[in-house]
Amino acid sequence: GHLTSLQTLTYFVVGNNSGCSSIGELRHLKLQGQLQLCHLQNVTEADVSMSSHGEGKDLTQLSFGWKDDHNEVIDLHEKVLDAFTPNSRLKILSVDSYRSSNFPTWVTNPTMMQDLIKLQLVSCTMCESLPQLWQLPSLEILHLEGLQSLQYLCSGVDNSTSSTFPKLRELILVDLKSLNGWWEVKGGPGQKLVFPLLEILSIDSCSNLENFPDAVIFGESSQFLDNKGNSPFPALKNLKLHNLKSLKAWGTQERYQPIFPQLENANIMECPELATLPE
């Protein structure tokens, strides 16, 4: 029978034929809390063409996962995310093996994401740029892994930006082969990154990354940098750098040496171009 009153469903596997489960079954459920969707490569055009699956749901955690399938329709990836536009504000979002170069509107809308605490993007190989994550007021944990096409952590520069990553405490960057820098500057000097509360930074196998961001005191962020030098990482306690073949400098300006005033642990391995340790 149809479980139309079901409110808790933490794990849903999409079947690969008409007799199996499809996401269409979730359309009328008033689900709450956590929902993890797996094997989304089995979703059909008919499944996503129905009305929004996010309507009537009070979800705080959403997880989307695809498996490699050479026969799947890549165009459906963005439509699947779009179909689950949440009507509540998410706290945790995880996306694995997403194959579109674009994210749907709700993911790129800071208002929809203003309560987001944790974001994890894994193996989204066509993703060339990210939403404006530095503007999210509640984001504490950011984990990016296997985004082979991503060139910059932040792009689409907005010169009105007054602070960046105001609550971020943990940043994990793994296997980002095309990552060239932290901030893409489009015309004019743009802004520079400050991570005022970041305590944990782990970067592994980002072979194109050559340097760390320079700091600049601007807007609201200046209060975090008082008496802590001019560091983009004034609160950093744990630093892990592994297999960064191009990393040469702690800042983009040769004269600039960033200071980690709160650093307690540093684990640096396989960074052959790095001549000095952080001060």
TrEMBL record:
Gene3D superfamilies: Ribonuclease Inhibitor. It comes from the Eukaryota. Signal peptide: none annotated. InterPro entries: LRR_dom_sf, LRR_R13L1-DRL21. Residues 23-146 form the R13L1/DRL21-like LRR repeat region domain. This is NBS-LRR protein. The lineage of its organism: Eukaryota, Viridiplantae, Streptophyta, Embryophyta, Tracheophyta. The gene is NBS-LRR gene.
